[in-house]
Specification:
five-stranded mixed sheet; 8 strands; 29% helix
Length: 163
């Protein structure tokens, strides 16, 4: 949803949104709530051939992980073949656990049944969860909302961000 929400912010359809971005995309006006890493993962029981294509478990077309993997991954020499698409993290986690392929998942979705891999794959960038405003959205009520969100996340940690 981050790409969709970012587009809505740019079009002025939203005043503010909590979005996930790569850390190098954090803007000076963003409020960073927390950061985490992104990893290539597979089931511990799945073996990857050193040659040939890598079966890729992908989020849908509106996912910036997918766009990065296809753009950068292919440029870096990784031969990814999308074998499964799903818009939910739960679906991707289930596909990884079933041994269907390799996926990009953030720290919060890693399970003990998964291996982090880096062989033949480019290192993914780190992630940041930010509060991002529309360019013209400035008012005291919005400032108060953003302050409260920042306070709650700092008080309860990223688990409180299950919006």
């Amino acid at each position: 949803m981050s790409l969709v929400l970012r587009s809505m912010l740019e079009l002025g359809e939203l005043d503010v949104a909590i979005v996930q971005v790569f850390t190098h995309e954090v803007r000076p006006t963003d409020v960073v709530l927390f950061r985490e890493n992104l990893h290539w993962v597979k089931s511990r029981e799945m073996s990857l051939s050193p040659e040939g294509t890598i079966p890729f478990l992908s989020f849908d077309d509106d996912c910036f992980y997918r766009r990065w993997a296809i753009d950068i991954g292919q440029d870096g020499g990784a031969d990814l073949e999308t074998v499964f698409e799903c818009s939910s993290a739960a679906g991707i986690v289930a596909a990884v656990n079933a041994g269907l392929g390799v996926a990009l998942l953030s720290d919060r979705h890693l399970l003990q049944s998964m291996d982090i891999i880096d062989r033949h794959l480019p290192t993914p960038p780190a992630l940041a969860y930010v509060v991002r405003r529309a360019k013209k959205a400035r008012n005291p009520a919005l400032d108060g909302l953003i302050s409260e969100i920042e306070l709650e996340v700092s008080r309860y940690g990223r688990l409180a961000l299950a919006i």
